Amino acid sequence: MSELHNKLAQSGDHHHSHGIVHMMIEGAMIGGVAALLGHLASKGMGEMVDKWQEGHPHVDPAALGNALGADKLQAIAQNAGLSVDDTLKFLSQHLPGAARSHAGN
Known about the structure:
Layout: H1 3-10, H2 14-27, H3 32-54, H4 61-68, H5 70-80, H6 84-103
Helix pairs in contact: 2-5, 2-6, 3-4, 3-6, 4-6, 5-6
């Protein structure tokens, strides 16, 4: 089990979860949260990304998975030491908050 997987298992508060999202994405060599948000916007989720940055936390896991694409999703899952389904579940719950945190930087 990876160190990141252990942290995911122990994550309880949202601030900690946002840091884990950053680690998952950057460790998968996707270019960080900004690059991932740009990718999602280019795949038709620009309005949703804007809403996340404004504080609206809803995201449909299926839409997120489609926008990420199988390759990126698999890279993130592999980096996290999780299944693709668990990765998508975690990201759908915590990526909106990470986007909001990123917008505040």
